[in-house]
Amino acid sequence: MSRTEDHAGAHPAGGERLRRWRMVLGGGEGDGTGCVLGGRDAAMDAALGALYGGGTGTGRKGAGERSAGLGGSAPNVARWLGDIRTYFPGSVVQVMQRDAIERLGLSALLLEPEMLEAVEPDVHLVGTLLSLNKAMPETTKETARAVVRKVVEQLEKKLAARTRATLTGALDRSARISRPRHHDIDWDRTIRANLKNYLPEYRTVVPERLVGYGRAAQSVKKEVILCIDQSGSMAASVVYASVFGAVLASMRSIATRLVVFDTAVVDLTDQLDDPVDVLFGTQLGGGTDINRALAYCQSKITRPADTVVVLISDLYEGGIRNEMLKRVAAMKAAGVEFVTLLALSDEGAPAYDHEHAAALAALGAPAFACTPDLFPDVMAAALEKRPLPMP
User: Fold this and answer.
1) What CA–CA distance (Å, rounded) separates 148 from 108?
2) Which DSSP state fits 374?
3) What is the pLDDT of residue 299?
4) Is residue 65 within 8 Å of residue 50, measured between CB atoms?
């Protein structure tokens, strides 16, 4: 009887621990478990070994020994993609796909339609496809658009309702009226405004002056300019910003403009009704000229006191730094609410230019990373001209 069988038979929990350690360590003479995998465990180990095995081979070298690589052909990769979707949950599949693209250089294979049909769509995959857009053959573009549209629709479903509700409330509060109807009364502000009329004997406040929420008019009340850095490191931010831009554009009370830039500036406002068109209008990669982008945005501002400019960038400026800062200072002096987001994604702390971030903070425009869940609250605060809910 082997050591593994002895442990598993006498101590089932110990056998399970050995199995788990074997899955973690990857097999080979040095893992010390003596555990041999079979069936589903062996298939899972093979899928993991192809990606994380640490070698340079194209397949398994022997029982219990991992070797990294998926081979040079699309069928091998397609088979591997099918395996990981069989053995692992969707969130893990997305991580493994991302690692495969980065570690094993699979980007070129994503240009094949059959490969795109096999992958699990997510924000990071969309970013990779957008970076490959110019190299993509016509036979693949429709499949790629279908993948991107699926992700965009999932994000819109998740983010749109809360964004509209939060911003509608902010717009209503910014249009307070003094003779509201009963269901439009802002009771908190009404009580505070009438505390001098408190009657102790009745333990009540006499509301001589009512404060209420105005109903958002059909006309435009606020203008929002989203200015998005489309350098390669901002891929996830571009995806989320395009979705939020489409949601904002659907609100009649907000006039939304969407501008993307690298060393050139492109206005994609006329495509905001379809964020997929917006995304395929971007070109990830290249240099960065924030000053030039802000100059364009500044030229489009007609109502400074009612305008919010959101710059989404890691602030690695390739243009004229001092001019960039002067433009931000001028916009703020004119009454523009200026928001700087170092990232709009769930990827954690981003890399960014700390010197430029500090300079913006000194101008009263602090730069911070923002998750998609926090973005509606940030925009609501900017529309109401109150402190931003920075994490």
Assistant:
1) 17
2) T
3) 96
4) no
